[in-house]
Amino acid sequence: MSERHHFIKELEDLKLTILNMAALSRQALKNANTAYLERNDTLAQEVIDGDRKINALELEVDAKSLKLLALEQPMAKDLRVILGTMKISNELERIADQAVNIAERTLFLSQYPPLEPVASLERLMETTDQMIDLAINAFLDENADQAIKIRHMDDMADQYTLEILQAMILYMVKSTPATEKRILNTRRSIQTIIISRCLERAADLATNVGEHVAFIVKGINIKHQKVDFKE
Q1: Quick check: is 224 in a domain?
Q2: What is the number of domains present in the chain?
Q3: 145-160 pLDDT, tens per residue?
Q4: At 45, which CATH number?
Q5: Could you report the per-residue pLDDT of 53-108, keeping only the tens digit for each?
Q6: Residue 229 falls within a domain, yes or no?
Q7: Would 115 be classed as within a structural domain?
Q8: pTM across the whole model
Q9: Which of 64, 102, 186, 213 pairs as cysteine with 32 (C-beta 3.0–4.6 A)?
Q10: Would you tell me the crossing angle of helices 76-109 and 3-38 to the nearest 10 degrees?
């Protein structure tokens, strides 16, 4: 086997590892959302317990990437793939952490009667899921244009997060004057706000993944820049 062929094989193995990690992180967030909506303690605990595997995969990605950097001394796009993959694995691990945070809040909320449904929260869940799917597919297809699409969707996620905050504040203001119940309503509202912030953060992380993909494919850093590759 030639050195180049061996390097390509190792690089493909690295990509498969990150895709496995992406699938697990994506599913963790979906399961956390489902656990919240269905008040499913068992599923929420599965999300928490499954985080160890995702953490282990991040370490595996780092080890494989450092080995390739040390032994192969890659250049140009090969170097960008390795550096970008290391950054993406960190974003995916943090998405999984947000899923764990949602699951932990779900374990608390499921002990008490549910709050009135907040439409913006379900919309935020759907938007975040779509952004993560787009980010993973952008990496798989090496599609830098998807990074721009994900960035535009992040504005929607921010808007839904604001709407949830406003709804929860209004609920707390209008809550019953009875002290004990008011305290419980406040605690449940705060936990719901935290969940929305976790989702909004996951959306930000999906945006970051898209930006790393743009770096891999185009070789430019589009963070904090207005870029449209189709122009």
Answers
A1: no
A2: 1
A3: 888 889 889 999 999 9
A4: 1.20.58.220
A5: 999 999 999 999 999 998 877 888 899 999 999 999 999 999 999 999 999 999 99
A6: no
A7: yes
A8: 0.92
A9: 102
A10: 20
